[in-house]
């Protein structure tokens, strides 16, 4: 059994914890959580989730511990990862979900504290290898003690790009992610970093143009597409589920029917469980808690003179865990 510690217990950390408890309790044990909140708050937010509903198991605060499904989880409040008791707790993997430690140097502090590996649930700030399941799995090996699961947008678009590029070749393209708001935004207008003035505005009341690093990330995952993709984000007044729009110039003429046929084939074959397709007329809330990295809305596929528009929808928080951990256990042994 893999012994896991979660560093950072915000939305991503809690969702990952839920998934591990619900789906992988026989393979993975969450031993400790390091965050600024106390045990009572952690228990409350794990048990009750506005978007994903009540946790079906048992959760209670017990002093400096949580009791989750009758198992003890250590409650740690340490700002310096190098001082976390990972060695004493025999931690195999730290899930770095704080958003604060996204570089090799900062994540190495977890290794110095005794952890065997670190998984960053966000895009890295340096050359840490990004792994997108179903796309560049071959890079995953024991010799990489620090890896990144990339961003939700990258996980959403990379499988689609892989399929279409291998099929006919992508010449260039644009990405626009219509992204639900996150805790990095403000409930009401308030001061933020002056380099991001628009993000200072009320998240639930505005459509806010923003940036996305997904295009650059895709260029790292597919080196031959480096510099050929660019993109932006629109932060919209929705609490969950995003829509990633790909506008691509293909190297050969294609039709919408052919595009959808290729995506269907991949969803039923090599990318099953990662990429899905949807022929029904669904809306964003229908995708809450969907485990797929991307679900392509086939009805929305458009082709005009060799230019295609494809739309994929992920539950941006949920896909940071789920099947990734079953896949991680199979391909990345840490003992």
Please provide a written account of the structure.
The protein has 2 domains: 127 residues, 3-Layer(aba) Sandwich (Rossmann fold), CATH 3.40.50.720; 165 residues, Dihydrodipicolinate Reductase, domain 2 (2-Layer Sandwich). It is 23% helix and 26% strand. It is built from 7 helices and 16 strands. An 8-stranded mixed beta sheet has the order 3-4-5-2-1-6-7-8, with helices on both faces. Helix 4 crosses helix 5 and helix 4 crosses helix 6. The protein starts with a strand and ends with a helix.
What are its keywords?
335 residues, alpha/beta, 8-stranded mixed β-sheet, Dihydrodipicolinate Reductase, domain 2, Rossmann fold, 2 domains, 7 helices
Short description:
The protein has 335 residues and is of the alpha/beta class. The protein has 7 helices and 16 strands.
Strand count: 16
Main sheet characteristics: 8 strands, mixed
Strand content: 25-35%
With strands numbered from the N-terminus, the spatial order across the biggest sheet is 3-4-5-2-1-6-7-8
- The CATH architecture assignment of the largest domain turns out to be 2-Layer Sandwich
Number of domains: 2
* Residues in helices, as a percent range: 10-25%
Q: Give the full name of the CATH homologous superfamily of the largest domain.
A: Dihydrodipicolinate Reductase, domain 2
Our Rg estimate from Cα atoms comes to: 20 Å
- Average predicted confidence as pLDDT: 91
- Enumerate the spans where pLDDT stays under 50 for 5 or more consecutive residues: none
């Amino acid at each position: 059994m893999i012994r896991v510690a979660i560093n950072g217990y915000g939305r991503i950390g809690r969702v990952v914890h839920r998934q591990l408890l619900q789906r992988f309790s026989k393979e993975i044990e969450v031993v400790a959580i390091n965050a600024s909140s106390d045990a009572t708050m952690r228990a409350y937010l794990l048990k009750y989730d506005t978007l994903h509903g009540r946790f079906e198991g048992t959760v209670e605060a017990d002093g400096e511990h949580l009791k989750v499904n009758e198992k003890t989880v250590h409650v740690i409040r340490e700002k310096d990862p190098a001082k976390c008791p990972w060695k004493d707790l025999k931690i195999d993997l730290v899930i770095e979900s704080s958003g604060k430690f996204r570089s090799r140097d900062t994540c190495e502090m977890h290794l110095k504290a005794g952890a065997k590996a670190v998984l960053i649930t966000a895009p890295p700030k340096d050359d840490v290898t990004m792994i997108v399941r179903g796309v560049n799995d071959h890079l995953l090996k024991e010799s990489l003690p620090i890896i990144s699961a990339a961003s939700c947008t990258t996980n959403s678009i990379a499988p689609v790009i892989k399929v279409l590029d291998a099929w006919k070749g992508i010449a260039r393209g644009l990405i626009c992610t219509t992204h639900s708001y996150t805790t990095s935004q403000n409930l009401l207008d308030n001061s933020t970093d002056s380099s991001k003035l628009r993000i200072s505005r009320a998240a639930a009341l505005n459509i806010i143009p923003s940036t996305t690093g997904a295009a650059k990330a895709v260029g790292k995952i597919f080196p031959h597409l480096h510099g050929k993709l660019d993109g932006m984000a629109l932060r919209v007044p929705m609490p969950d589920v995003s829509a990633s729009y790909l506008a691509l110039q293909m190297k050969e003429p294609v039709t919408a029917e052919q595009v959808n046929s290729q995506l269907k084939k991949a969803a039923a074959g090599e990318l099953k469980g990662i990429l899905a397709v949807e022929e029904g007329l669904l809306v964003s809330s229908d995708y809450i808690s969907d485990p797929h990295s991307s679900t392509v809305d086939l009805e929305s596929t458009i082709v005009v003179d060799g230019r295609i528009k494809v739309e994929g929808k992920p539950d941006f928080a949920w896909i940071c865990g789920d099947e990734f951990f079953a896949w991680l256990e199979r391909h990345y042994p840490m003992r």
